[in-house]
Amino acid sequence: MQLRHEHAFTVTIPEPFDFPLTVSKPAGWPWSTRKEIFDDGTLWTGVRVGDVPAGLVMAAHKNRVRVRAFTVAPLAKEARHDLGDIVRAGLGADEDLAGFYAFAQDDPVLEKAVVDHPGMRIGLLEDIFGGVVLAILLQMAPIERSEQMMDAVLALAGTEISFDHRTVTLWPRAEDVAALDPELLRTKAKLGYRAERLVGAAQYLASHPVSLRGLAKIPEEEAMKVLTAIPGIGKYSAAIIFGQSTPPIDAWSVVIMSELYDHRTPAHTRQEIGRVQEELEKRWGKWSWLAFAYILNDIGNLSKEYLLSRVK
Hints:
CATH class of the largest domain: Mainly Alpha
Strand order of the largest sheet: 1-5-4-3-2
Low-confidence stretches: none
Helix content: 40-55%
Distance between the termini: 40 Å
Number of strands: 7
CATH superfamily of the largest domain: Hypothetical protein, domain 2
Structural class: alpha+beta
Mean pLDDT: 94
Number of domains: 3
Largest sheet: 5 strands, antiparallel
CATH architecture of the largest domain: Orthogonal Bundle
Shape: globular
Radius of gyration: 19 Å
CATH topology of the largest domain: Endonuclease III, domain 1
């Protein structure tokens, strides 16, 4: 899909803010899609405004982010405002980093992670199905296997957009995956049992639309109930999609967090997921998702001070 109509605008993100750390995180997390491009301080990526694909070229001077948005046709005034809100939320404009940094001073692990990555915001993009795809394909699989499955799904059902002499691929729409035969995802994308889960989640979301920005306006407990009603999405997956005070703990992160905070390696990782998650929720409270994200993105540095058995 060729996008030629251009609309430019600027968003200002509260300090502290580091654009490269926010959109190209050390742990390799993409800002919007795995098929985006970050080069020499500029990000080429894309989002959907409602159901309209928009290619984005973003670069920043300090905390002012210049955005060039490309679409097939001009966006209406309301859609332009919505796109601005999407970008601001995706850049974490509403995150209270100053409050989090003050909290982190009493936690040696977090204090180091914050010092190592000042101004890194996590953000919340309005792409519920992209989050569902990510969460389901992370279930019970090493990261390399998950990444292979994500790339296969993007190649099979993603939306390819070309603009500003670049091409990126957006996560598929729920409606498109809902129409697929799970067998196709099993054979072409090698998803295994996740094929049925992904199609089931897509069919549910196609008939029960969910807005992440809408979830951010209601109590977290209610938001988690909305997400766990999606087939294939449990507490762990819901925390990946919409983490707040619930960190998404799995068998790998149980080991990391236990070694960082308990100074021991658990013998039975899956049996300790509940315990570790509960302890971290108590330790971090409302800062849980920021804390979890900062630690994962600082694993390389933390492994120089802590004995982390799962870090190469």
